[in-house]
Amino acid sequence: MTAPELTHPLPRTRRRLTPALRWWWMFQRISGVVLVALIFTHLFYNLILGGGVSQIDFGFVAGKWAAPLWQWWDFTMLVLAMLHGMNGMGYLINDYARSKRSRGILHILLGAATAVIIVLGTLVIFTFDPCPAGANPQNLNVPLCQELGKL
Question: Where are the domains of the chain?
């Protein structure tokens, strides 16, 4: 089995950048820089201060998301990463989709997938229960659950 051979992208036309395209171009550059800072801080906190990958479990996440700062941090990473990725994929769609109809359909699917992932991720981050009823206490952050009065 071989990989399909890609055709060359469509030739660039000399179009003027609309304000929306200019805004997305700027967003792509700025969000990339912000994402690098957010991701390296996230990795430093989880891997260095958190004791390594083996220490990351439900209790670790529960303790981390008990602080609103980390909820908003992860929410910001989620939204920026999804919009950054959507914008990048949009450029690829514009370069490789041959017909106007296929470009439109692919952009709609991409926007829908991005919206669904942002909504689901937001629900997980902000409705996360650090001490679910009936959970094994070995898997929970016991001091946090005792502080919340759920253990």
Answer: 24-148
